[in-house]
Amino acid sequence: MNILFTSVGRRSYLVQYFKETLGDSGEVHVANSSSVSPAFLVADKSVVTPLIYDSEYISFLLEYCKSNHIDAVISLFDIDLPILAKNKERFEEIGTTVIVSDYETIEICNDKWKTFCYLKEKGIDIPVTFISLDDAISSLHNGCVSYPVMVKPRWGMGSIAVFEAENEEELRIFYAKTMRNIQNTYLKYESAVDIEKSILIQEKLKGQEYGLDVIDDLNCNYVTTIAKMKYAMRSGETDCAVTVDKPELKRLGEKLSCVMHHRANLDVDVFVVEDKCYVLEMNARFGGGYPFSHMAGVNLPLAIVKWLNNESVEKSVLTERVNIMGQKDIQMVRLQIEPQMNIGKILDADEAERQFLYFEKFLSPTLLERGIDIKSYAQKICSHGAILSCKNGIENPMGLLGMYVNDKDAYTAYLSFLSVDPNFRGLHVGKEMMKKAEKLALENGMRNFKLEVRKSNINGIAFYKYMGYEVIEEATKDSYYMWKELKEN
Amino acid sequence: MNILFTSVGRRSYLVQYFKETLGDSGEVHVANSSSVSPAFLVADKSVVTPLIYDSEYISFLLEYCKSNHIDAVISLFDIDLPILAKNKERFEEIGTTVIVSDYETIEICNDKWKTFCYLKEKGIDIPVTFISLDDAISSLHNGCVSYPVMVKPRWGMGSIAVFEAENEEELRIFYAKTMRNIQNTYLKYESAVDIEKSILIQEKLKGQEYGLDVIDDLNCNYVTTIAKMKYAMRSGETDCAVTVDKPELKRLGEKLSCVMHHRANLDVDVFVVEDKCYVLEMNARFGGGYPFSHMAGVNLPLAIVKWLNNESVEKSVLTERVNIMGQKDIQMVRLQIEPQMNIGKILDADEAERQFLYFEKFLSPTLLERGIDIKSYAQKICSHGAILSCKNGIENPMGLLGMYVNDKDAYTAYLSFLSVDPNFRGLHVGKEMMKKAEKLALENGMRNFKLEVRKSNINGIAFYKYMGYEVIEEATKDSYYMWKELKEN
Question: What are the backbone angles phi and psi of residue A473, rounded to the nearest 5°?
């Protein structure tokens, strides 16, 4: 049995758990939109996917599952879940089971306003929440709730962009700031549904925080609930926790399973204030608190594999020992892989000028030394050619390429500019940019690619030879022309 | 050679590095005010210390160093550094070297206003910083700086309590909020020096962040600088980084060493904007970025041990390979040790009442079932006895004890109430509270300790027997009196 984790992020320990479960009987594959993930080092096989929002995302995954004989897909990221849920049947058709809750269940989890309304309707305690700033302020005025209150994105995750307002002035400011934050981050995709109702104001509870793993089988039948007292948090994830024996939390878990009808794991944050258990947040997937259950003897990966094989799961597989305290320690791993490269076109001449100014200093001689006016150069290449920029996962420009594709007589593309920031050399930035440039040339009807290189630039000549170019003639007394015939794939 | 890390926190990897360096020739000890640290599992020996602010802190460490033959002390926490620097000679007297920079150097690092003034005076680039809200606002008005600006505690650490203000309204509100935050956290200790000047407003730079390890030997002579490009951050610590070859950063490191005169490691955050390198922050200790240097072949622990032994350090020991990318992965560890216990007296009758109400429900029968009025009970025991509360590191009440110490005839203390939250059973909460209670009884002139226990409470009787109590007589038909003679120590 082969299992694929999508949006695996940093959860290398889950890969490890499934590898231990499968042993020699199957492989664990991981997929992520960035390869900068420790999980890539642990998995049997890994793949960098298009972004979740990309129209090719699902077809990419389907293709991958087909050619790698993936039996089951598990996603670890909230944004990924609804897209997989919607496309579950397409995976079924190729024999791949997506272990994901129904779309409606995921929506109730991801949309924190729906979480509030739905759980309230079902009689489950949840902090008082407002979707309208005016409603919140009038309730604060008449004393129904009191400061501090939390201001957070309705479709947010964990503690990202959450503010604590201690008075009305702060509340108004944080509300406006959160609105701007949403529009500047990927949260805008989710919030586009209803931007005016994309911020929640929620009472802040003072109590002890617990985490639950509410476990259903793959047919949404309740199995058990593991409760952990959170001892320390870090970046919104549980860093240190201890399994506890608190019957009221088990009862809450069973009730949640009953109203949520999820599959496998439902990760729940709970605040216990005096004797009441308030649900703070739910995620229909493995959460950052699962390893604490695993450490206490629970083996959900094994149960999932058995369920997939239609085998029965003994009670002991999902039974925890209590008072087991765990902590997440840091372990250094070396990433052998290339960092993420996003190669895109620059279409705006001003932006092109800025980029040429930044990258030309790495050339020898520089454009300025050659007496080239960068503004008009940028405009010219923008109009008659193409400019490719290569950035890494944190949007640092790593390389810049300028080319012409307007030779409709000889169908020869011409490389005018290629510069890689020395900080990023050795990462194949130049190679990947050239490959993209050649593809683009073909798409523009070009059949050959030509470039000029200084004779003294030994490394450059070697690089272009490696890329399939050959020296065809002297360009000047100091430089050669190199040339390559382009082939479709 | 034995080495002690104080305020070791989560840095288990440093313990590991030093253990690898020392091999069988010495031990690595760790000290922390909380035992909830993965470093405690890795170290050869560990000890929970008083808080750094506690008057007994240094004498505790001196005693520990003496009895454990500690040759060198290294601290990993900013607040700890100046206290150790001030007391360096007292450690020297007992033969222990504290590897710490001079007090003045530490002050320049810890006090971010001093960092700004000092580096500016020395001609090193640093973001424009204001200590007065009015100055900041007028500079923003006249365009010398522009929004967004960062609002942060002058004595803060990392990204704790830092706000980004995008306009004047936000700036004023965040300034007020930061002032309140400082007064509500441990930052108030540092900020007490000058509370009106305890907040900084700093321009926000947009550029690439780098981390430096600027390495001096133990006599403050410059050795080398390791530069790393930060690829991802997490909780204010470097999560993913790659070593780079950037001569301007090496030059900056050398200049910083020259003006700072630090010892061993100076951890520096740098923003590179176009061609300028701005120093953002400095810490006169091992920082969260050191493991990336270590992964790239640098071995500062080995160099430190050699320097302590007056051996020479070959250049290769502190030479990095560039383009080595590392990431911090998560590894689960089980904490075998007891969580931190803070046992303190409750002096306020209202607070006592609240605590009795919380803890009495774990008793059988409860006080309420026995018809006891909890309010007057709390008042009585507050006046004539003592109430001990046991909390863990995150301030959860774990146990409550009430006792009388007013029997001046028979000098017999009387245990009136002992309840441990079932979530925390098995952690020796009861045992530690009883030990504290007995100590308190002795301090109040008592010579014996007496208590009543139900005959059916087999576990309770066994527990008190384990604590040295014996059954002396029947109290009621359902209960015994148990008794113990108290001894000094």
Answer: -170, 165
Q: Which is nearest to B252 in space by CA: B278, B290, B273, B230?
A: B278
Are B392 and A231 in contact (CB < 8 Å)? yes
Burial class of residue A449 (count of CB atoms within 10 Å of its CB; 0-12, 13-18, 19+): buried
Q: What is the pLDDT of residue A38?
A: 84
Contact state of A170 with B177 under an 8 Å Cβ cutoff: yes
The single-letter code of the amino acid at B476 is T
Cis peptide before B365 (omega within 30 of 0): yes
- The residue among A195, A201, A196 whose CA lies nearest residue A138 is A201
Sorted by where each starts, the structural domains of chain A and their CATH numbers stand as 3-100 (3.40.50.20), 103-124+207-331 (3.30.470.20), 128-204 (3.30.1490.20), 342-485 (3.40.630.30)
A338 pLDDT above the threshold of 60: no
Sheet holding A276-283, edge to edge: A276-283, A265-273, A208-216, A222-234, A237-243, A325-334, B325-334, B237-243, B222-234, B208-216, B265-273, B276-283
Q: How far apart are CA A129 and CA A145, in angstroms?
A: 10
Q: What is the spatial distance between Cα B32 and Cα B7, in angstroms, rounded to a whole number?
A: 5
Q: Is the pLDDT of residue B209 over 70?
A: yes
For A:35-74, CB contacts with B below 8 A are: 36-38
Most A CBs within 10 Å: which of B170, B335, B392, as the mutation test of the A interface? B335
User: How large a percentage of chain B has pLDDT more than 90?
Assistant: 65
User: Would you list the DSSP string of A213-254?
Assistant: EEEE-TTS-EEEEEEEEEEEEETTEEEEEEE---HHHHHHHH
Q: Which helix (H) or strand (E) holds A17?
A: helix A12-22
Residue-level pLDDT at A337:
46
Report the half-sphere exposure of B188 (CA within 13 A, side-chain side): 8
